[in-house]
UniProtKB/TrEMBL annotation, chain A:
Its EC number is 7.-.-.-. It is found in: Cell inner membrane; Endomembrane system. It is a multi-pass membrane protein. This is Ion-translocating oxidoreductase complex subunit E. It comes from Maribrevibacterium harenarium. The gene is rnfE.
UniProtKB/TrEMBL annotation, chain B:
It comes from the Bacteria. One of its GO terms (biological process) is transmembrane transport. Its main location: membrane. This is Ion-translocating oxidoreductase complex subunit D. Belongs to the NqrB/RnfD family. It is found in: Cell inner membrane. The keyword tRNA processing does not apply. Part of a membrane-bound complex that couples electron transfer with translocation of ions across the membrane. It comes from Maribrevibacterium harenarium. The gene is rsxD.
Amino acid sequence: MHSNTDTANTATDVETTNSGVNYQELVYNGIWKNNPALVQLLGLCPLLAVTSTVVNALGLGLATMVVLIGSNIAVSLIRNYVADAVRLPAFVMIIASFTTCIELIMQAFTYELYQILGIFIPLIVTNCAILGRADAYASRNPVLPSALDGLTMGFGFTVVLVLLGAMRELIGQGTLFSDMHLLFGEAAASWKLTLFPNYPDMLFAILPPGAFIGLGILIALKNFFDEREKQRKAAAEAGKEKVSRRVRVTGKIT
Amino acid sequence: MALLRITSPHTHRGGRRTSWVMQMVILATIPGILVQTWLFGFGTLINILIAALTAIGAEALFLKVRGRPIAFFLKDNSALLTAVLLGIALPPTVPWWLTVTAVAFAIIFAKQVYGGLGNNPFNPAMVGYAIVLVSFPVPMTQWLGHADLISAGSTMSFSDSLSAIFGGLSTVDAYTMATPLDAFKHKGGLMSDEAFASVTALQAASLNSWMWVNLAYLAGGLALIGLRIITWHTPVAMLAGLAVVATFFYILDPSNAATPLFHLTSGAAMFGAFFIATDPVSSCTSNRGKLVYGAGIGILVYVIRTWGGYPDGVAFGVLLMNFAAPLIDYYTQPRAYGHKKPKSGVAIGGDK
């Protein structure tokens, strides 16, 4: 577990604790640069197990996000009163309490989804992304930045879950947003988009191996965009230098 | 000044380029393809055509995306070989989109994503096959039967094959039958000899047709050994592994196990041994390694056929041994001339 928190603890986190909080960077880190699913690769177990449809992914993503925000706020509140030696057990207790709350809420309001997600709701406790953020960020920062960090990290995680769920649902069953009424009430039952009628179910995408390959494609896409951005910046830099170094020997120098 | 512009190894023979080797392997499958066409109709040929077009299209597309020379890599015929092997392995009645999925997956995810020919850790054709077998079990386990045993009473006509592949033939059930392996696996409470006496798919005509398919691939494989494109180690080890395990269990329990001959002449035994397991990229390179690798596949094929969830196990056996190939190569590195026993790896035996 500790090695996970180390990876999550990037240089930018430490910087923000020293100088004032940069909220813009916090959002950018959570959603893109330090995305828990695509960069830190934390919480892979629920990520791979429950993303067979959009509704499952969204349900677990929202639950994780709520737990992450709650635990970050609570950990930040008690950060000056917990001895270093017992901080991890304390954090886990807090996360477990929030997870139990979410589990009871889901059991009360979205019972079918609660049954579909099954063991993966209690397993939110073991999601490394949550303990990682508690230890790497919330335990060293004031409440408001910690809450925002929880929100953006949770949002980043949920976005990847939903993207993966959409990919697998589309390839696996040829539909999108099926069974959304499990989460949003009866009105959402008609949201289902059947993109390919008579689609032969491709079991591979629905089974766990499909999730691995789907996640691999998403990570590759992210790296591709990062690489292109880097090249674009490098090209812009190079272009600037060229202009400034040009020596004109004739005509008017502006 | 005429300097030699060739690099080592200097033992290579002129004209033995990758494209020629791939071309020869493709040609060596012809006897098998002919027998399959004769027994099961034109489905196999149509599959190979669809597969070839898809493979060349997918390969060209991804070479372009990766910024590699397209014509140069297409000319090595490796994509074509993958397509031919998949076209042979897929049942002759599978819908066209299934073939396209399998081949596209094989070329894109099993080959180009790893860096193209020479860098793929798994046999691309078998990755494609395994993906569609896992995804679409129903069309993938629907094989055609011998003409004398099926209710249609004749092999599939060309137009029927076409409509089965492109539109879904409603009378396809009249042509299909379980393969001997499938039938034997699901013989239920029957004893072996009872099953061979009563189950349709285990009648002599059905067994013989699969034997002819296997013999044709054996002939093609022997030609490849004769041309020194493959060595004897992998196929012999694989067939021996399969035969030894099958004999062991047949002697142990003759009333429930099938004969070793049944295992060697049904399913993809010969095709797998000579054309799939010998893939130079994903298999072992040292001769001792090839023996271990082949034997492993043979044993896995028997295990999957007998206790696994699928009727035949060549694809999964080969893929599992592909995982192990680098490890086997590590421990079977041959002694370099003039050197003592290699020190790498665990010292087994008295190496003082």
